[in-house]
Amino acid sequence: MEIRDLKSEQLESAASILKAIAHPMRIAILSYLEEDKELTVTEIHKLLGIEQSSTSHHLGILKSKGVLKSKRKGKNTFYSLKHSSLFHIVNCVSKCTDLD
Fold first, then answer.
1. Which residues pair with 79 in a beta bridge?
2. Mean pLDDT of all residues in the chain?
3. Which of 1, 22, 79, 87 has the highest Cβ tally under 10 A?
4. 3-class state of residue 69 by DSSP
């Protein structure tokens, strides 16, 4: 399927996902969740080196826009990519920002 074949609702959804991802911390979160990884808020906030409340805020945005999914296991909530293909966006952006 090509972009010109998408319906307006699909284009709106794609734009919403891209807007949600368009933040350095959120891109970093996606990079940590590659290859079907599941991480808790605590694990992600330690990897990012930011406050847990900020991490929760970013995770909430990504989840509400359909980028992430969560699963409760005991006292922990594990976050992962809703669609593993979303990681390709991070790879693409990474390659486009190489300063060769």
1. 39, 70
2. 89
3. 79
4. strand
